[in-house]
Amino acid sequence: MKRAIELVGGLTVLALFALAGDVLVMVTGIPLPPAIIGMALFAGVMALAPKLRARVARASILMTGLLGAFIVPPFVGVMLFADEVQAHLVPVAVILLVTTPLTGLVTALSYRMLRR
Amino acid sequence: MMMLTEDMWRGAAACLLTLMAFVAARGAARLAGGHPLANPVLGGALITGAMLWALSVTVEDYVIAARPLMGALDLAIVALGYVLVERLSGRIRLLLPILGALAIGTAFGIASAYFAARLFGLPLDFVQAISAKTVSSGFAIALMERLGGPPPLAAGLVIATGMIGALTVPPLLKWLKLDDDDTLGLSTGLAGHIVGTDMLMRSNAGAGAAAALAMAVAGLIAAVILPLFLS
C-alpha cells in the first residue's frame, strides 16, 4: 500500500513537471518540445532536492522502463510515410544509413578527445 | 456524448493492444538474449501492425486512438531527468567535454544530412525534413513548425534514423573499442535519440542516462543550428 501511494505520488510529480513544460512553452513560445523542458526542470529540482529525488525514484524507474512501449505508435505510424518516401527511397536510405552511424562515431571521437 | 465514450473505448483498446504487443516483444527479445535486432519497440510495432491488419483497422485510426500513450511518453521523458541526475551527480567535471562533444556531433549530424540531401538533388521539403533527423521527433516537429518544413515527413525520418542509430552505433563503437558507458551513451543518444536511449536504458542504465542527456542537449543545440541551414 505504501509502495502504491509512493508510486502514484511520483507519477503526479512527473505529470506536474510535464504540465510546467507545457505552460512554459505556451507562454514563451520557445520552439522546443514541452516534455524536454519538463525534463530539464525536473532534473534541476532533483539535483537540488535529494529527499524528493528518493520519493520519485519508483515512479521514474517504472516510466523510463516503459518508454519503449510509448514509442510503438510512431513506429507503426512510419508506414504512413512509405508512399511519400518511395519516390526518393534510394538517396534517403543511403543518406540515413551513412550519416547516422557516422554522426555517432564523430560524437564518440570528439568526446574521447575532449575528455583528456 | 456517445462519440466521446466510443473514442474512449477505442483509445483504451489501442493502448492495451500496444502495451501487450510491447510486453510480448520484450519477452521474446529476452529469450533471444538481447540481440540488437530483437528490439521490443520494433517487435511491438510489427505485432501491432499485424494485429491492425488482422482486425482491418487503418494505421491512421490507430495512431489517433493511441494518443493517450503520447501523454505517457511525456511523463517518461520527464522521468529521464531523474536518471540523468543520478548519473551526473558528483561528475560535474565531465560536463564541459560532454557538451563540447554533443555540440560537434549535432553540428555534424545536421550538416552531413543537409549537404548529402543537396548533393542527391532532393526536393526542398526532403532537404528540410532530413536535416532535422538527428534530433528527437518532438524537437523535429517543433522545429519544422517554426521553420516551415513538413512535420510528418520529418517525424518519419526521425524514427527511421533512431532505428538505424540504435542498431548501428553500439556495434560500431564496440568494434572500435570506444564503448565505455559515457562514450557509448552519448553517441547512441545523439545519433539514435529516443530509440537509442530506450534500448540502452534496458541493457545498461549508465549508458542510458548518458543517452538521455545527449538526446536533450542535441535538441537544444539543433534549435540554434538548424535555422542557420534552413532560412
UniProtKB/TrEMBL annotation, chain A:
Where does this polypeptide localize?
Answer: Cell membrane
Task: Look up the coiled coil feature and give its residue ranges.
Answer: none
Note whether Cell membrane occurs among the keywords: yes
Segments spanning the bilayer are 30-49, 61-82, 88-111
Q: Which UniProt keywords apply?
A: Cell membrane, Membrane, Transmembrane, Transmembrane helix
Q: How does it sit in the membrane?
A: Multi-pass membrane protein
InterPro entries recorded: LrgA/CidA
Is Cell inner membrane among the key words of this record? no
What would be one Pfam family of this protein? LrgA
Q: Which PANTHER family match?
A: HOLIN-LIKE PROTEIN CIDA, HOLIN-LIKE PROTEIN CIDA-RELATED
Q: What is this protein called?
A: CidA/LrgA family protein
Organism for this UniProt entry:
Pacificimonas pallii
From TrEMBL, chain B:
Q: Which residues are listed as membrane-spanning?
A: 62-85, 94-117, 153-173, 209-230
**Has keyword Methyltransferase?**
no
Record InterPro entries? CidB/LrgB
This protein's source sits in the domain of life called: Bacteria
Which keywords does this chain's UniProt record carry? Membrane, Transmembrane, Transmembrane helix
Q: Where in the cell is it found?
A: Membrane
Q: How does it sit in the membrane?
A: Multi-pass membrane protein
Its protein name is LrgB family protein
